[in-house]
Amino acid sequence: MPDAFDYVIVGGGSAGAVIASRLSEDPACRVALIEAGGRPPEHELIPVACASLQLDPQTDWMYTADPGKAGRGLHGNRMPVPRGKMLGGSSGINYMAYVRGHPGDFDAWAQRGASGWSYAEVLPYFQKIEDFHPSNEITSDQDAHGHGGPVSVGVRSPVIPASRGFVQASENAGIPRGDYNGRDRGGPTGVVSLMQTNTRKGKRASTYRAYLEGAPEQRPNLTIVTGALVTRVLLQGEGETLAAVGVEYRDQTGKTRTPHAACEVILSAGAVGSPHILMLSGIGPRRELEAADVVCRHEMPHVGKHLKDHIQCAMFFPAPGVGLPMSEVRISLGPDALRGSDGLLPVDPVDDDKLTPEQAGLKAEASRRVEEWHETGSSLIASSLYDAVAFTSTGLGDHHSHDAQIAFIPCGYNEDLFSARLNIDTSRYFEDAAATLAPDNENIIVLANPVLPHSEGEIVLQSADPTVPPSIHMNYFADPHDLKVMVAVMRRALDIVEHWPGPVKPGPLAIPPFLARKHGYVPGQPPSDALLENMALHFSTTVYHLSCTCRIGDVVDARLRVLGVKNLRVADASVMPEIVSGNTNAASIMIGEKAAEIVARDRGVRLARFVG
Ligand SMILES: Cc1cc2nc3c(=O)[nH]c(=O)nc-3n(C[C@H](O)[C@H](O)[C@H](O)COP(=O)(O)OP(=O)(O)OC[C@H]3O[C@@H](n4cnc5c(N)ncnc54)[C@H](O)[C@@H]3O)c2cc1C
Questions:
Q1: How far is it, in rounded angstroms, from Cα 107 to Cα 112?
Q2: CATH topology of domain 157-194+310-323+385-543
Q3: Which of 197, 408, 544, 575 to mutate to test the pocket of ligand 1 (most atoms within 8 A of CB)?
Q4: pTM above 0.85, yes or no
């Protein structure tokens, strides 16, 4: 591979893959994309299999975090913080909810100094991203959406009846249907909808699939290096002349390489990776760098600080006649998913010639469902099961936006998801976890998710060795406001479930038995605030939305240039001046689109289309 480029982009995730794809539209522009992970595995395309990409070192960075005041009911008090490690980054591992954020979020960015990032100014980039597929199942603000863009956005097929039930229940509880990605989010009351997802024909549309796969990755002026751990930015000069000239990385064989950038280095390594690389390069809080034996080249106290994330409490309801059994999802994954110790099908397919008639029928049905998904995109596996959502206000502040997101899962998950992926101690969460989470049981989960947290965490450098992860301190609930909002959101979630339509309703909220005893909970009575608080402190988990660790105003300017270092930008979720009040993937892709145009305008790169 050549060792000189115009632009070296670090990290091919939600933002980085977009920037590499856009800048390489100009054949005269030599672009290198350096990514630590590989190409995504085949099962990355199966939406419902998303959790299986976590805890796999091939596709996940495997970070865990100190959860601060939360996490008391997690094994070892640690919060797993998955981050995608592949082309596509976290858009390859995530739950595919396509949520832009409230218009007021972006206006607030602009008001605090991020000029050029108001809602009116970011809307064209959201539209550039999208290939929106309207559906009779949702209300959509057609003119606010984009058509023909790389990322397909639509509603899952088939719609699961329980998810329709959640939308109706929310409406019955006073939250009208609407387009949460539209221009009008309905004032404090908010809106409810089936989830819009970034999927194409029932398959994941990560930024690798949408922006790089196929023709773009074949461009002669785009070099994509995978399995390459970037260890630092190469800097030249000092003081006012300090400038980035390239990066250093370790390739798969452990060899050190140093591609040079004639124009710029762009860090898109995400909210953990970008501040980590800056600090490894000597750019960050002096005392922390020196404690880790890194020479401070440029003191920047805010690198890694102001970490924001969303946290959610999974409220579990046994729901016979309403919820979707996990066994049905498993059949839809095809015959191989049925091979296991429980004997639904033989472990080894060579033994399939001895199937009972029941097993033969099951295998035929599983095969039929997979074929149908391949051909039409319609299947129970065509979404992550994060299927419907309401955005509303608790009235406790932050009136520029909605501070509450209440999302719906039409099933009860399984032991693996609760215990391994979320790290929840299910022996404390449930009276009898095995019985409650049995595959044929019908349950639902409502996720209470405050979305404008006041607490801030931090990413702290631990070692000059780039293979040692930084410490992640989430500091959840450090600000008492956040716990107040959480309780209010949990109450609103209970209210929605109480308004379930039709004669068959979900059962009562499952209260962890030790908390029921501690707070004298009387079944049938509403849980007290103290009980709900304690439930949140024990069993809330990350919503995976880490952001703001290199935020505009403190670490980069509004054109994403690192303050005081020439030819170096950061463009990913870390630059958000404040976390958006919803899932962060769409905003990260938008940051990638806008960053590409900013760079192109500053440097004369000829993109195929400018929208800003
Ligand atoms: C499990 C999970 C579920 C989620 N669900 C949703 C959802 O449903 N909807 C939603 O909107 N958002 C969701 N999110 C959040 C969303 O995906 C992220 O906010 C978004 O992808 C962040 O984009 P990014 O470009 O900042 O970082 P990333 O997409 O994480 O990209 C960073 C890239 O940089 C690479 N990298 C990092 N360090 C280095 C290094 N040293 N050298 C080389 N490469 C490096 C990484 O491997 C990665 O590819 C989820 C996230 C996760 C992890």
A1: 9
A2: Cholesterol Oxidase; domain 2 (3.30.410)
A3: 544
A4: yes
